[in-house]
Amino acid sequence: xxxxxxxxxxxxxxxxxxxxxxxxxxxxxxxxxxxxxxxxxxxxxxxxxxxxxxxxxxxxxxxxxxxxxxxxxxxxxxxxxxxxxxxxxxxxxxxxxxxxxxxxxxxxxxxxxxxxxxxxxxxxxxxxxxxxxxxxxxxxxxxxxxxxxxxxxxxxxxxxxxxxxxxxxxxxxxxxxxxxxxxxxxxxxxxxxxxxxxxxxxxxxxxxxxxxxxxxxxxxxxxxxxxxxxxxxxxxxxxxxxxxxxxxxxxxxxxxxxxxxxxxxxxxxxxxxxxxxxxxxxxxxxxxxxxxxxxxxxxxxxxxxxxxxxxxxxxxxxxxxxxxxx
Length: 326
What we know:
Layout: E1 2-6, H1 11-22, E2 27-31, E3 47-49, H2 55-64, E4 67-72, H3 79-82, H4 86-106, E5 111-115, H5 140-161, E6 167-172, E7 175-177, H6 192-201, E8 207-209, E9 221-222, E10 224-226, H7 227-243, E11 250-252, E12 259-260, H8 261-272, E13 279-281, E14 290-291, H9 296-302, H10 310-325
Parallel strand pairs: 1-2, 1-4, 2-3, 4-5, 5-6, 6-11, 7-10, 8-13, 9-14
Antiparallel strand pairs: 9-12
Helix pairs in contact: 1-7, 2-4, 4-5, 6-10, 8-10
């Protein structure tokens, strides 16, 4: 069985591709390279450069490579930027997903693992986010991911009415960090880890936005998960769909406890050997004190667990950053 990984030349997608290869599964990649890198795709993996908005290209790829399932990670992923670019966000994330679903149906591809986002929850008013926490997205990005989930669920119902099926699940997660191998690294200009480590590499001082929150050390607490753990669960979900194992429509891939920005800074100093005291700036408007998700449901069905410590996350990210800088 061949799996198509959309966005497979990106940071997370490339790790999912490697995880499939390590499991002995054939895989093909579609990526527009808007934010992906061709060097992230192993030489032995077929790579199709293009956008999901090109339905003919998607259909041709599905048929030519005899694809039986899709892991859908392609999309515009910058929540903050999506506020100023909503039309681009909806085009890439909603229209792109609808086109993919249309071409999957035409090619009789009946399995889908969707990379969703914890941005669908917005700013939840609970100590621990579960799959039952109400979804209240606060950005076009979060809205587009939630609409993607709706599209998939609606298409699955339509397939059932037509006497077919679309077996699917959606994985929601917050901050993905670290690296499974130094040649794959986070190149986002917006994520905390590459920002902090890049500043340390350049001899600059990272900044904490607010240290007066109602948390143990006064700084914001967030969920951070290692990209290798995340990739592994995507493959487990794909295997479950292949086997016909019933899955929930949505799973949170959460840490259950989270870490603070201050903790990240402290461990970054230890790992990099750069002795620094972060600058403290005022709070950013809208930053909640704590957002952490439970991963209990995913642990039950997908073998989800945090296999890497915060030190592992930062050390692997730093190694990759140094390898890239060199």
